[in-house]
C-alpha cells in the first residue's frame, strides 16, 4: 500500500530513514527464563508430554485444586430450593428425561450434561422447576449432583488458569497469583455452584485457551505429533464451547484471528513454499473448523435422538419438523384440489398458521368480519374454494374442475358462510397506503361481489410432482392470491392484532413488491366427491441436516428477539465497572446475589487499561524512532498480552452490538481473560524486583483479595449476614442487594436453624397481613364486576395454552 | 527441512528486484509537484492566481456544457407530478411547521429542512397545508420552488465531481466521463427532482470531498493561506453534511481517518519537531472538529429560535423543555409540601406523566381500581398526602413538613381510595419481582398496605431545604412500599385497552433505579398563605434543549417502521430492487439507478478490491512491486475513493434500522469517481483518440439506457410493452400494469368483469360501485346480526358457543407469537 504522502510530495517533511535515534543497546535475552522453549528442550524432554510440570508446579497445582474444591463446593447443597435460572436448565433436564421436545436458545451440550448428572443421581424428570424458590427436598430431586457438575467444572478452571500463565512463559508467582484470583472471584464462584450454563462455558473456554497456548509453544515444530495433538484439542475445545452457548463463537473468533495472524506470519516467511503453506492451512482448517463443526452437530444428533416426543417447543417449528416428533403427526391428505374442495390455507413464511376468520368484526375501517392468521387447527380455518361465477360446480370424475394457474376463485368461509373479501380500506393496525384491509363479507345466500375475486398465481411447486406446477395440489403447490380489483396480494406478517383480534396475526392485502410473505399453501383438503382411494400426500419428514438448520435458525431468531426488559439486565459498559449485580435468590433472610470480587474485578479492568496505555506509548515511541526492548522481553510480553487482550476484546466488545437483553454474567468469559492479563501485568511491573519482593507483592494482593472475598461471601453461599454488615458492604450505591432481608445479628440465624421448617416467617406474615387487611375492608370493592370473561378456552386448546405459558416464561426470563 | 528447522522471519525477502525505471514522463507523472497543482504552469510562465476554480479554457467549455446538459436533465418538467411523491408530504408538512413556528420532532437534523422551508417562505408560502390533500396543483403550494432546492444541489454535483477528478490529477477525459455518468444516473436524477434530503446530502458530501482534495494538494505548503482556506472549507463541508442527515457522520469518519493517517505520517518524520507537529494537530482539530460542531449547533440554534410554539409533538419532551415553548407553560406552584397538600406526582425518567387513577378496575388480579401513568393534565391526577397515623391531620400553624423517611398515605382525590400495593402480580408485566399497584379502600378505611415511605434521592442544588423535605419540583424521591419492600415504578409498557393504553404503574423490587423516581409537579394546600414562595420549572438553556432533543431524535431514529420497499445493503450494490415513489393513473415514479452505470461502478469497486488484495499478498511474499510515480498516484487516489465508498456503505450492515436504496447514493458517488480512476488506469497507454472513442461509446450506451428508464424517473407515460421489456431483473417491481397496453383484453377474459370501455378509470369506478353496494349490504348484515343476537340474548351459554365458535386464545398467545418474530 502506498503511503498517502509519497516521498516526492514531502520534500521538507519526509519520512526519512534516519530513525535510529539511539544506538540499540540490545542485550540478548536469556531464554531459559521462559518455560518450555527451545533451549531447554532436551532437559525438559522428559516432561514434554501432557503435563510437563516441574515438582513445584505440581505441588502448587494440587494445593490450589484442593482449596478450590473447598471454596467452590462448600455447602453446595445449601439453597435447597430452585435458584434463578435453575428454573430453565433444571426444567430442560426434566424434559430431556421425558423426551418431550422443547425450544431453547442455547445449544444442547451443557443441558445434556446436566441431564446426565441428573440421571446418575436418579432423577425421574417429575419435577418441573416451575419457579424460583421451589423446594428440592420434598420431591427428592438430586439437585446436588446436578450442581456438582457446574462445581467441578468451576474447580477445573483454576489449574487451567495456572497452566495457561505458566506455559505462556510467565513466572510461577504470576501463575499462582492468577489462579488464586480466579479462585476467590465471588462471581465465578456463585455461577459455579448452581445449575447454570456459565460454569461449563468458562471451563471450556479456559480449556481451549490452554490448548491453544500449548499449540503456540509447539509452533516451531510443525507437523510433529504434539503439534497435531494440541491443535486437535483446541478444535475439540472450540466445539465444546460453542455447543454450550453461542457465546462460544467469540472463542472461535479469538482462536481464528490468532490462527490467521500465525498464517500471515508464515506467509511472510519466504522459506515456506506455497505447497507447505497450503499444508499448514489445511491442517488448521481441519482441526479448527471441521472438528468443532462435527462436534457441534454431534450434540444435536443426540439432542434429536433424545427428544422424540412432541412438546412445548413445537410451536416454533415448521410443520415438516413437527411431523418427525411423536404425537404430532398429520393425517394424509388427498392430493387433488378442485372447485368445491374444503381446504385450510397455511402461510408459508411465518409460523403464524392458517388463514382464519371468526364471528367478530373489525372495530374500525369497514367493520366487517375479521380475517386473521391462527396457529392452531380449528374449524374456523376451513374454506371452500368456489368458482367465481357459480358456487356449485359439479364435480365429475372424468373431467374434474382443477384449479389452474391464473384461475379466479372465491373462498367461502365454511362456518360463517362469508367470502374472503378485500377493498380499498386501510387495515386497522398496519395503516399504510399500500395495504388494503382483508375481511370476510356477505351472508348466506348473498351472491357476492367482484371484491371477492382472487386470482391464483402459482409460484413454486414440488419437483417430484410436476402437475403441482400447473394446478393447485395439497402441500406441493405454493401460490399467491391476487386480488383482482385492487391489484394486491393476500399477505400476512408478524404484526399482531390488539385484543379485539385476540392477538392473532394480521392479514392484509398488499400492493407492489414481491414479498415472501404473500406465499401460501394448502395444508388440509377434502372434497365430498373425491373417491377414497385418491392419491394422498403428507409432509415429507426432514432429514437431520434440515432439522439441524431449521432449529438453529429458530434459535437465532428467538435469541435476537429476546428484547424484553428484565429488572437485572445491564449494558456492557457497566460490566467493567461492576456497577450492578443480579439478584438470584432470596429466602429465609438469606440471599444469593451475583457480584464479583470488587478488588479482583477492578484490578482486571485496570490491567486492561494499563495494557492499552502501554501499547499506545510503545507505538508512539516507536513511531518517533525510539527503540524499546526491555532486556529483550518486550516481544514476549507484547505477544502474550496482545493475545489475552484480544481474547478479552472479542468476548466483550461484540456485546455492544447486541440489542437483546444482556446480563452481568455475559462478561465472565472476558473477565477470565482480564484476570490472565493481571498476571502479565504483574510480571511486567515486577520484572526488575527480586524474587522475594515479587512474592511479597503477590501475597499482599492475595490477602487483600481473600479478605474482600470473605466480606461478600454471604451473598455467594447464601450465608447468614447482619443488616449492618450488609449495609457496610454496599461500597457502591448501585449494588442493589436487599439488606433489609437479613436479620439483625448472627445469633438469630442460629435460632432460625432450629425452626427450619417454619420457613419464611417474615414474608408469609406480611402477605397474610395484607390478605387480612383486604378481606376486612375490601368487601365493597370486590363486588364490582369488571369485564366478563369473553369466552372460555376450548378444551382442545389447553395443550397449546401450556405451550404458550412455557414460551412466555422462557422469553420473559431467558438469559 | 521446513518442518524441523526453526522457522523465523528472516530478512531474505528481496526475491527479485521488480523495480523498473519510470517511463518517459506523461501528464500523470507527477514528479514535478507543480504539475500536481492543476493549471499552474511551471516553466517561468506566471502561474494563474490560485482561485477557487483555476480552470483552463478547454475545461471551461466542457464544464459549461455539462452544467447546461445537467440543468436540462435534472429540471425537465420539475412541476410534473403535481402531487406529493414519497416523503414529500412529510417534508412539506415540516416546512409548513417551520413557517408557522410550531414545534416538531423529526429524526433528521434541521439544515436541509430549513432550506426547503426558506425556499417555500421566499416564494410566499403561508404555511397552511391541508394534510389530507396530496394534490398540489391548483393550490398555492410553491412545491416547484421547493423542489428547485434539490434540483439545483443535484446540478451542483456535476461540476464538483468534474473538479474532484481533475484536481486529483486525472485526465480531462476521465473527469468528463465521471460527471457525464453522474448526469445520466437515473437514481440521482429521481432524487434530485423531489423535496427530499438526499440531494442536499450528496451535494454536501461531494463538496467536502472536493475541498479535501484541494487541501491535500496544498499539503506541501502547510500553514499558508490556501492551506487554511481549504482545510476550513473541508470543515464547513463536514458541518453541512452532518447537519442534513446523521448519515453525514460517515463523511466525518472518512475525512477523520484520512486526517489521522496524515498526522501519523507526519509523526514518523523525525525532522518535524513535536511543537510543529502539535501545530499541525491543533490546526486540524480546529478546522475539522470545531468548525463542524459549531455549524451543527448553529443550525440547531436557528431551529430552536424558529420553532417557538408548542404543538402535539412537544408531549414527548420534558416539562423543562416544554416550558421554553409558547403555549405550554405551567403556572407557578407553591413550593412547600406538607401533610394535607393536594399534589400531582410526576415520573422523572419517562415522559409518560402523572400518577393517575380512575374509576375503572383491573379485569383480573386483585380487581381493584387501576393506577396508571397518564401524560396529560387531568383532575384524576390529584392526590392528597396524608400522615401515616391520622388521615385527617389538620394543617397547623407550624406546618408539618414531610421529611426523608416519613411514612405517608396517598389519597386519590376523586375516588377517595388510597394508593395501595400488595403481593399480586401485575396484569401486564407478570413477573416475580413486580407487585400490582391499585387504589383501594374508601374514605375511612385504610390498611397497612397503603403505607409508603418517602426516600429523597435528589434535590435542587439551589434549594438546600429540598434535600431534607419534600418540596415541589425540586425534590426527587422514591416511594418505598413498606410491607412488600418494593418501589413505585413505571416504564414504557402500556396497558391494553381496558387500561386505555395508559402506561403501567407497578411496584418493583430491584427495579431499574431511574424508573422509580418521582417528583411533585403541582401542589396546593388550603391552609397555605397566598404569599407563600412559588416555584416553577427552570427554563432549559440552549445546550439542555440541544441534548434533550438529540436524545429524543436518537430513540426515534432507532425505531423501526414497516415499509414494503425496505432493502438490505447487500442488494444495493447489485441494484436488485428500487423503490416505488409514487403512482397515479398511468404514471409512476420508481427510484432505480441506471443499471449500466451502477453495475460498472460495482465492478470497478470489485476490481480495485481484488487488486489491493493481490498487492498485499505479493508484498507479503516478498515481491517488490515498486511503483513508479504514476502508479503511486493511482494507488493513492484509488485508496482514498475506495475508503470513501467503504465508509459510506459498510456501516449500514451494522444497522438494525430499516434501510432503503437511497442510502447507497453517497457510496455510489464514490464508486463513480472510482470509474474515472479505473478508466485512466486501464487506458493509460492508449492514445487520446482511442480514449475519446471509448468514452463516447460508453457514454452513448449510458444515455441510451438512461432514456430507456427515464419514464419512471420523470413520471412520464410509457408503453406497457416497453415497460415489460425493460424489466431486466424480475425483482424490479415497478408496476407495468399501470400503463395502457393490450393487457385489458386478458383481464376481461379472465375476470369476467364486464368492462365496456377499455379505460382503466372504469375499473376504478366499478370498484366504487362495488363499495357502495357493499355498504348497503353491510347495513343489511348488521340488522341480521342484531336479530341473531336478540334471539340468543336469553341463552347465555348458547351465545358464547355460536358467536365465538372455537375462538382462539387469551393473553398468553401474544407471547407465543412474539417469540416467533
UniProtKB/TrEMBL annotation, chain A:
Pathway stated in the Swiss-Prot or TrEMBL entry: Protein modification; protein glycosylation
Record's keyword annotation contains Repeat: yes
Keywords linked to the UniProt accession: Endoplasmic reticulum, Glycoprotein, Glycosyltransferase, Membrane, Repeat, Transferase, Transmembrane, Transmembrane helix
Gene3D superfamilies named among the record's database cross-references: 2.80.10.50
Keyword Glycosyltransferase: yes
Membrane topology: Multi-pass membrane protein
Gene Ontology cellular-component terms listed: dolichyl-phosphate-mannose-protein mannosyltransferase complex
Catalytic activity: a di-trans,poly-cis-dolichyl beta-D-mannosyl phosphate + L-seryl-[protein] = 3-O-(alpha-D-mannosyl)-L-seryl-[protein] + a di-trans,poly-cis-dolichyl phosphate + H(+); a di-trans,poly-cis-dolichyl beta-D-mannosyl phosphate + L-threonyl-[protein] = 3-O-(alpha-D-mannosyl)-L-threonyl-[protein] + a di-trans,poly-cis-dolichyl phosphate + H(+)
InterPro entries given in the database record: ArnT-like_N, MIR_dom_sf, MIR_motif, PMT-like, PMT_4TMC
Stretches assigned to the MIR domain: 334-388, 400-459, 469-525
Subcellular location as annotated: Endoplasmic reticulum membrane
Enzyme Commission (EC) number: 2.4.1.109
Membrane-spanning residues: 58-76, 144-163, 170-189, 195-213, 225-240, 246-264, 285-307, 599-620, 664-685, 697-717
MF (Gene Ontology): dolichyl-phosphate-mannose-protein mannosyltransferase activity
Enzyme class: transferase
Pfam family, one: PMT
Task of the protein: Transfers mannose from Dol-P-mannose to Ser or Thr residues on proteins.
Family: Belongs to the glycosyltransferase 39 family.
Protein name: Dolichyl-phosphate-mannose--protein mannosyltransferase
Species assigned in the record: Dentiscutata erythropus
UniProtKB/TrEMBL annotation, chain B:
UniProt domain MIR: residue ranges: 334-388, 399-457, 467-523
Main EC class the enzyme belongs to: transferase
Assigned GO CC terms: endoplasmic reticulum membrane
Keyword Glycoprotein: yes
Transmembrane domains' residue ranges: 60-77, 141-161, 167-184, 196-215, 227-260, 281-306, 596-615, 636-655, 661-681, 693-714
SMART domains in the cross-refs: MIR (SM00472)
Record keyword Ribonucleoprotein present: no
Pathway membership: Protein modification; protein glycosylation
EC number: 2.4.1.109
Annotated PROSITE patterns: MIR
Protein name, entry field: Dolichyl-phosphate-mannose--protein mannosyltransferase
Record SUPFAM superfamilies: MIR domain
Native organism taxonomy: Eukaryota, Fungi, Fungi incertae sedis, Mucoromycota, Glomeromycotina
Cellular compartment(s): Endoplasmic reticulum membrane
Catalytic activity: a di-trans,poly-cis-dolichyl beta-D-mannosyl phosphate + L-threonyl-[protein] = 3-O-(alpha-D-mannosyl)-L-threonyl-[protein] + a di-trans,poly-cis-dolichyl phosphate + H(+); a di-trans,poly-cis-dolichyl beta-D-mannosyl phosphate + L-seryl-[protein] = 3-O-(alpha-D-mannosyl)-L-seryl-[protein] + a di-trans,poly-cis-dolichyl phosphate + H(+)
GO MF, one example: dolichyl-phosphate-mannose-protein mannosyltransferase activity
Gene3D superfamilies noted in UniProt: 2.80.10.50
Membrane topology: Multi-pass membrane protein
Protein species of origin: Dentiscutata erythropus
Family to which the UniProt record says this protein belongs: Belongs to the glycosyltransferase 39 family.
Job of this protein: Transfers mannose from Dol-P-mannose to Ser or Thr residues on proteins.
Coiled-coil boundaries: 763-801
Keywords from the named record: Coiled coil, Endoplasmic reticulum, Glycoprotein, Glycosyltransferase, Membrane, Repeat, Transferase, Transmembrane, Transmembrane helix
Amino acid at each position: 500500500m502506498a503511503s498517502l504522502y509519497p516521498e516526492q510530495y514531502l520534500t521538507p517533511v519526509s519520512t526519512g530513514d534516519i530513525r535510529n535515534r539511539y544506538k540499540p543497546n540490545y542485550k540478548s535475552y536469556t531464554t531459559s527464563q521462559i518455560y518450555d522453549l527451545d533451549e531447554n528442550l532436551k532437559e525438559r524432554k522428559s516432561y514434554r508430554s501432557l503435563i510437563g510440570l516441574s515438582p513445584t508446579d505440581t505441588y502448587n497445582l494440587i494445593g490450589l485444586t484442593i482449596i478450590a474444591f473447598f471454596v467452590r463446593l462448600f455447602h453446595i447443597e445449601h439453597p435447597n430450593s430452585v435458584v434463578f435460572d435453575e428454573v430453565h436448565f433444571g426444567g430442560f433436564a426434566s424434559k430431556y428425561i421425558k423426551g418431550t421436545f422443547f425450544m431453547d436458545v442455547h445449544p444442547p451440550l451443557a443441558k445434556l450434561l446436566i441431564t446426565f448428572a441428573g440421571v446418575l443421581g436418579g432423577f425421574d424428570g417429575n419435577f418441573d422447576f416451575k419457579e424460583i424458590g421451589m423446594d428440592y427436598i420434598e420431591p427428592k430431586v438430586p439437585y446436588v449432583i446436578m450442581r456438582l457438575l457446574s462445581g467441578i467444572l468451576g474447580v477445573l478452571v483454576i489449574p487451567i488458569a495456572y497452566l495457561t500463565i505458566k506455559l505462556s512463559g510467565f513466572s510461577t508467582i504470576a501463575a499462582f497469583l492468577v489462579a488464586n484470583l480466579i479462585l476467590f472471584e465471588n462471581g465465578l464462584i456463585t455461577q459455579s455452584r448452581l445449575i447454570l450454563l456459565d460454569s461449563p462455558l468458562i471451563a471450556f473456554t479456559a480449556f481451549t485457551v490452554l490448548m491453544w497456548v500449548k499449540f503456540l509453544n509447539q509452533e516451531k515444530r510443525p507437523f510433529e505429533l504434539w503439534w497435531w495433538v494440541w491443535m486437535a484439542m483446541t478444535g475439540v475445545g472450540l466445539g465444546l464451547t460453542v455447543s454450550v452457548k453461542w457465546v462460544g463463537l467469540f472463542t472461535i473468533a479469538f482462536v481464528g484471528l490468532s490462527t490467521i495472524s500465525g498464517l500471515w506470519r508464515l506467509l511472510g516467511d519466504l522459506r515456506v513454499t506455497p505447497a507447505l503453506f497450503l499444508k499448514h492451512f489445511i491442517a488448521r482448517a481441519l482441526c479448527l473448523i471441521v472438528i468443532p463443526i462435527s462436534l457441534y452437530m454431534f450434540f444435536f444428533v443426540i439432542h434429536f435422538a433424545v427428544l422424540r416426543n412432541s412438546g412445548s417447543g413445537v410451536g416454533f417449528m415448521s410443520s415438516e419438523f413437527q411431523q418427525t416428533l411423536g404425537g404430532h403427526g398429520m393425517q394424509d391428505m388427498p392430493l387433488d384440489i378442485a372447485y368445491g374442495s374444503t381446504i385450510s390455507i397455511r402461510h408459508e413464511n411465518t409460523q403464524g398458521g392458517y388463514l382464519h376468520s371468526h364471528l367478530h368484526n373489525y372495530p374500525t375501517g369497514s367493520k366487517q368480519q375479521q380475517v386473521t392468521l391462527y396457529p392452531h387447527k380449528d374449524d374456523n380455518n376451513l374454506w371452500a374454494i368456489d368458482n367465481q361465477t357459480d358456487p356449485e360446480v359439479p364435480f365429475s370424475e372424468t373431467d374434474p374442475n382443477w384449479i389452474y394457474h391464473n384461475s379466479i376463485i372465491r373462498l367461502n368461509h365454511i362456518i360463517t358462510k362469508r367470502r374472503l373479501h378485500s377493498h380499498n380500506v386501510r387495515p386497522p393496525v398496519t395503516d399504510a397506503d399500500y395495504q388494503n384491509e382483508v375481511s370476510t363479507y356477505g351472508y348466506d345466500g348473498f351472491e357476492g361481489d367482484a371484491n371477492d375475486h382472487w386470482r391464483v398465481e402459482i409460484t413454486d411447486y414440488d419437483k417430484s410432482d410436476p402437475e403441482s406446477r400447473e394446478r393447485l395440489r395439497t402441500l406441493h403447490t405454493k401460490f399467491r392470491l391476487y386480488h383482482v380489483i385492487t391489484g394486491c396480494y393476500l399477505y400476512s406478517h408478524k404484526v399482531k392484532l390488539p385484543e379485539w383480534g385476540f392477538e392473532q396475526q394480521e392479514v392484509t392485502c398488499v400492493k407492489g413488491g414481491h414479498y415472501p410473505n404473500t406465499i401460501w399453501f394448502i395444508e388440509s383438503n377434502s372434497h365430498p366427491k373425491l373417491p377414497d382411494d385418491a392419491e394422498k400426500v403428507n409432509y415429507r419428514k426432514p432429514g437431520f441436516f434440515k432439522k439441524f438448520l431449521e432449529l438453529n435458525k429458530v434459535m437465532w431468531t428467538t435469541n435476537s428477539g429476546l428484547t424484553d426488559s428484565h429488572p437485572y439486565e445491564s449494558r456492557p459498559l457497566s460490566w467493567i465497572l461492576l456497577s450492578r449485580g443480579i439478584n438470584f435468590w432470596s429466602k429465609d433472610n438469606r440471599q444469593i446475589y451475583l457480584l464479583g470480587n470488587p478488588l479482583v474485578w477492578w484490578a482486571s479492568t485496570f490491567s486492561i487499561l494499563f495494557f492499552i496505555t502501554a501499547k499506545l506509548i510503545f507505538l508512539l515511541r516507536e513511531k518517533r524512532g525510539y527503540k524499546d526492548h526491555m532486556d529483550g522481553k518486550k516481544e514476549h510480553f507484547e505477544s502474550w498480552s496482545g493475545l489475552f487482550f484480544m481474547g478479552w476484546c472479542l468476548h466483550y466488545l461484540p456485546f455492544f452490538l447486541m440489542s437483546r437483553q444482556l446480563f452481568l454474567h455475559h462478561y465472565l468469559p472476558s473477565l477470565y481473560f482480564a484476570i490472565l492479563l493481571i498476571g502479565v501485568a504483574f510480571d511486567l511491573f515486577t520484572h526488575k524486583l527480586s524474587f522475594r519482593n515479587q512474592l511479597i507483592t503477590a501475597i499482599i494482593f492475595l490477602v487483600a483479595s481473600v479478605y474482600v472475598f470473605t466480606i461478600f461471601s454471604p451473598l455467594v453461599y447464601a450465608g447468614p449476614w447482619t443488616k449492618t454488615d450488609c449495609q457496610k458492604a454496599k461500597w457502591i450505591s448501585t449494588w442493589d442487594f436487599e439488606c433489609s432481608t437479613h436479620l439483625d445479628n448472627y445469633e438469630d440465624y442460629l435460632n432460625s436453624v432450629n425452626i427450619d421448617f417454619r420457613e419464611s416467617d417474615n414474608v408469609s406474615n406480611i402477605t397474610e397481613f395484607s390478605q387480612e387487611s383486604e378481606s376486612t375492608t375490601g368487601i365493597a370493592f370486590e363486588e364490582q364486576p369488571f369485564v366478563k370473561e369473553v369466552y372460555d378456552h376450548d378444551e382442545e386448546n389447553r395443550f397449546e395454552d401450556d405451550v404458550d405459558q412455557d414460551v412466555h416464561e422462557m422469553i420473559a426470563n431467558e438469559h | 527441512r521446513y518442518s524441523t528447522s526453526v522457522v523465523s522471519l528472516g530478512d531474505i525477502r528481496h526475491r527479485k528486484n521488480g523495480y523498473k525505471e519510470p517511463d518517459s514522463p506523461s501528464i500523470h507523472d507527477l514528479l514535478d509537484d507543480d504539475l500536481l497543482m492543476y493549471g499552474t504552469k511551471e516553466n517561468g510562465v506566471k502561474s494563474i492566481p490560485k482561485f477557487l476554480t483555476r480552470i483552463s479554457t478547454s475545461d471551461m467549455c466542457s464544464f459549461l456544457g455539462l452544467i447546461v446538459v445537467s440543468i436540462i436533465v435534472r429540471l425537465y418538467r420539475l412541476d410534473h407530478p403535481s402531487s406529493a411523491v414519497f416523503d414529500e408530504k412529510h417534508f412539506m408538512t415540516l416546512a409548513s411547521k417551520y413557517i408557522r413556528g410550531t414545534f416538531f420532532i423529526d429524526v433528521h437534523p434541521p439544515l436541509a429542512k430549513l432550506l426547503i422551508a426558506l425556499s417555500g417562505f421566499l416564494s410566499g408560502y403561508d404555511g397552511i397545508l391541508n394534510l389530507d390533500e396530496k394534490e398540489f396543483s391548483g393550490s398555492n403550494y410553491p412545491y416547484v420552488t421547493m423542489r428547485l432546492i434539490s434540483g439545483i444541489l443535484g446540478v451542483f454535483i456535476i461540476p464538483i465531481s468534474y473538479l474532484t477528478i481533475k484536481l486529483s490529477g486525472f485526465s480531462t477525459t476521465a473527469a468528463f466521463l465521471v460527471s457525464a455518468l453522474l448526469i445520466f444516473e437515473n437514481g440521482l436524477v429521481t432524487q434530485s427532482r423531489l423535496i427530499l434530503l438526499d440531494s442536499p446530502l450528496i451535494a454536501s458530501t461531494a463538496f467536502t470531498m472536493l475541498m479535501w482534495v484541494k487541501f491535500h494538494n496544498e499539503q506541501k505548503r502547510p500553514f499558508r493561506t490556501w492551506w487554511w482556506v481549504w482545510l476550513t472549507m473541508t470543515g464547513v463541508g463536514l458541518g453541512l453534511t452532518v447537519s442534513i442527515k446523521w448519515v453525514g457522520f460517515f463523511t466525518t469518519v472518512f475525512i477523520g481517518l484520512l486526517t489521522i493517517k496524515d498526522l501519523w505520517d507526519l509523526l514518523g518524520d523525525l525532522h518535524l519537531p513535536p511543537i510543529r507537529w502539535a501545530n499541525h494537530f491543533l490546526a486540524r482539530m480546529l478546522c475539522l472538529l470545531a468548525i463542524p460542531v459549531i455549524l451543527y449547533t448553529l443550525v440547531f440554534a436557528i431551529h430552536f429560535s424558529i420553532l417557538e410554539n408548542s404543538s402535539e409533538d412537544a408531549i414527548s419532551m420534558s416539562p423543562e423543555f416544554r416550558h421554553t415553548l409558547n403555549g405550554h407553560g405551567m403556572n407557578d406552584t407553591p413550593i412547600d409540601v406538607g401533610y394535607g397538600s393536594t399534589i400531582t406526582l410526576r415520573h422523572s425518567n419517562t415522559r409518560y406523566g402523572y400518577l393517575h387513577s380512575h374509576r375503572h378496575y383491573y379485569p383480573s388480579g386483585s380487581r381493584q381500581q387501576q393506577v396508571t401513568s397518564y401524560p396529560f393534565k387531568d383532575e384524576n391526577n390529584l392526590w392528597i398526602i396524608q400522615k401515616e397515623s391520622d388521615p385527617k391531620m389538620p394543617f397547623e400553624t407550624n406546618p408539618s413538613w414531610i421529611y426523608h423517611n416519613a411514612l405517608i398515605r396517598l389519597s386519590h382525590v376523586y375516588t377517595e381510595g388510597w394508593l395501595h400495593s400488595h403481593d399480586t402480580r401485575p396484569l401486564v408485566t407478570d413477573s416475580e419481582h413486580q407487585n400490582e399497584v391499585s387504589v383501594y379502600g374508601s374514605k375511612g378505611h385504610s390498611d397497612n398496605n397503603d403505607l409508603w415511605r418517602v426516600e429523597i434521592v435528589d434535590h435542587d442544588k439551589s434549594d438546600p431545604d429540598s434535600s431534607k423535605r419534600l418540596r415541589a419540583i425540586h425534590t426527587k424521591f422514591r416511594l418505598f412500599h413498606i410491607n412488600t419492600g418494593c418501589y413505585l415504578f413505571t416504564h414504557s409498557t402500556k396497558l391494553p385497552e381496558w387500561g386505555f393504553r395508559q402506561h403501567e404503574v407497578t411496584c418493583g423490587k430491584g427495579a431499574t433505579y431511574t424508573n422509580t423516581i418521582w417528583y411533585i409537579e403541582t401542589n396546593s394546600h388550603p391552609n397555605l398563605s397566598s404569599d407563600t414562595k412559588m416555584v416553577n420549572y427552570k427554563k432549559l438553556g440552549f445546550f439542555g434543549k440541544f441534548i434533550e432533543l438529540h436524545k429524543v431524535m436518537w430513540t426515534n431514529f432507532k425505531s423501526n417502521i414497516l415499509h414494503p420497499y425496505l432493502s438490505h445493503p447487500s442488494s444495493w450494490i447489485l441494484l436488485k430492487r428500487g423503490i416505488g415513489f409514487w403512482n397515479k393513473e398511468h404514471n409512476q415514479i420508481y427510484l432505480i439507478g441506471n443499471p449500466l452505470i451502477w453495475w460498472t461502478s460495482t465492478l470497478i469497486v470489485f476490481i480495485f478490491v481484488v487488486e489491493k488484495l493481490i498487492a498485499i499478498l505479493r508484498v507479503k511474499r516478498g515481491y517488490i512491486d515498486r511503483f513508479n510515480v504514476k502508479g503511486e498516484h493511482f494507488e493513492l487516489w484509488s485508496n482514498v475513493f475506495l475508503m470513501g465508498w467503504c465508509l459510506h456503505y459498510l456501516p449500514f450492515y451494522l444497522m438494525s434500522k430499516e434501510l432503503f436504496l437511497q442510502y447507497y447514493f453517497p457510496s455510489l458517488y464514490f464508486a463513480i469517481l472510482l470509474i474515472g480512476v479505473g478508466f485512466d488506469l486501464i487506458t493509460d497507454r492508449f492514445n487520446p483518440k482511442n480514449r475519446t472513442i471509448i468514452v463516447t461509446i460508453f457514454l452513448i450506451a449510458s444515455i441510451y439506457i438512461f432514456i430507456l428508464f427515464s419514464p419512471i424517473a420523470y413520471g412520464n407515460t410509457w408503453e406497457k410493452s416497453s415497460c415489460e421489456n425493460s424489466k431486466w431483473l424480475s425483482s424490479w417491481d415497478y408496476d407495468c400494469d399501470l400503463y395502457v397496453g393490450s393487457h385489458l383484453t386478458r383481464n376481461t377474459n379472465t375476470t369476467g368483469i364486464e368492462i365496456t370501455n377499455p379505460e382503466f378509470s372504469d375499473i376504478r369506478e366499478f370498484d366504487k360501485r362495488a363499495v357502495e353496494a357493499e355498504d348497503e349490504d353491510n347495513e343489511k348484515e348488521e340488522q341480521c346480526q342484531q336479530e341473531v343476537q336478540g334471539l340468543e340474548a336469553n341463552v347465555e351459554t348458547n351465545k358464547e358457543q355460536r358467536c365465538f365458535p372455537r375462538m382462539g386464545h387469551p393473553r398468553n398467545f401474544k407471547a407465543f407469537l412474539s417469540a416467533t418474530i
